[in-house]
Write a structure and sequence with these properties.
The chain has helices at 27-40, 61-74, 91-95, 97-101, 130-138, 148-161, 173-183, 207-220, 235-245, 268-281, 289-296, and strands spanning 3-4, 6-9, 44-47, 49-50, 57-58, 78-81, 105-109, 113-114, 143-144, 164-169, 192-197, 225-230, 248-251, 258-260, 263-264, 285-286. It is α/β, with parallel strands linked by helices. It has a single domain, classed as TIM Barrel (Alpha-Beta Barrel). The strands form 5 sheets. An 8-stranded parallel barrel has the order 2-3-6-7-10-11-12-13, surrounded by 7 helices. Strands 1-16 form a two-stranded parallel ribbon. Helix 1 runs parallel beside helix 10. It is globular and about 50 Å long. The model has no long low-confidence stretch (mean pLDDT 97).
Length: 306
């Protein structure tokens, strides 16, 4: 691979507004962060929606429409919409963005996992909004559920709209899940894997775990495109390892709020600029959105509904 796809996950559903004043919340802020990331070198932006008044993750189609249309007016970046949604959302809420907007790419979580955020309560005592503390506490007794029935429902929806799934892999068992869904005909090639490291409940963010996931996928799936993201302080370290392996990378405020040790990132673009610089030092070219469309086999911006 000579061109690296950089993805920016701009807000997510993990961090709460009290953790950083730079976390984008309103539709305008989320779109602005996405466009800035694109200008910095991101070919893909991963999008969640939030209540513009209190910053809580939501599945509101009208908010998504405002975000997506704003992004499209300003750049040709690939938009990867979430189907993970926010913690506690129903599967119907999570998938609703796909039939509504027919995106080129959508996240697709490859199995159930404990998704625990509660340890951060030790660091944050004061919260700007009432929902934040309860949201984090909730994760101590929470399973992020993605059963085979749910995964088949999501894939059937995506396949009918020619939306490419980006497979979120938190642990090695999820690679086995992907192989089974390929065998049953729900998951079609080309396959795009996103290794997600560092979530409490999934694999820790280490280089050995990244290599293990890659090798396991080669054995079970064969050929695939892949990327990696890592939560928190290990974001750039794991991305650097992935680049050395020839993989694509994801950064952004969803995964880490920092640009350097003790320095809050003011936008996802701060992190994109860093990982782009590392990639270029390794003699890689940075994929444009159209390059990434060709690499991933996407349908093109003309076929989306926003």
């Amino acid at each position: 691979m000579t061109k690296i796809i950089v993805t920016a996950a701009v807000t997510g559903s993990i961090h709460v507004p009290s953790m950083s004043p730079y976390l984008p919340i309103t539709p305008d802020e989320i779109a602005e962060d996405a466009v800035r990331a694109c200008d910095a070198g991101a070919a893909v932006v991963h999008i969640h929606a939030r209540d513009p008044k209190i910053g809580k993750p939501v599945s509101d189609i009208n908010i998504y429409r405002e975000i997506l249309s704003n992004i499209r007016k300003r750049c040709n970046v690939i938009v990867c919409t979430t189907t993970g949604g926010g913690l506690g959302m129903t599967k119907e809420e999570r998938i609703s963005v796909v039939p509504a907007f027919k995106p080129e790419l959508a996240s697709f979580n490859m199995g159930s996992v404990n998704f625990a955020l509660y340890p951060v309560l030790e660091k944050f005592k004061d919260f700007k909004f009432d929902w934040e503390k309860q949201y984090l506490e909730f994760t101590e007794d929470f399973v992020f559920s993605n059963t085979f029935a749910t995964m088949k429902y999501f894939l059937s929806t995506m396949n009918s709209l020619d939306t490419r799934p980006e497979l979120e892999i938190y642990d090695s068992a999820m690679i086995n899940n992907a192989a089974q869904l390929m065998y049953e005909g729900y998951l079609k090639r080309p396959v795009y894997l996103q290794f997600v490291l560092g979530i409490l409940g999934g694999l820790p963010a280490t280089v050995s775990n990244l290599v293990f996931l890659y090798n396991s996928a080669k054995e079970l799936i064969g050929e695939f495109n892949w990327s990696v993201c890592a939560a928190g302080r290990n974001q750039l370290k794991i991305c650097a390892a992935a680049l050395a392996m020839g993989g694509n990378v994801r950064v952004g405020l969803e995964d880490s709020l920092y640009a350097a040790k003790g320095v809050l990132a003011k936008s996802s673009a701060d992190q994109v600029e860093k990982v782009v610089r590392i990639a270029r030092e390794l003699s890689y070219d940075i994929a444009t959105p159209d390059d990434a469309r060709q690499i991933l086999g996407l349908k093109g911006l003309q076929s989306v509904n926003f």
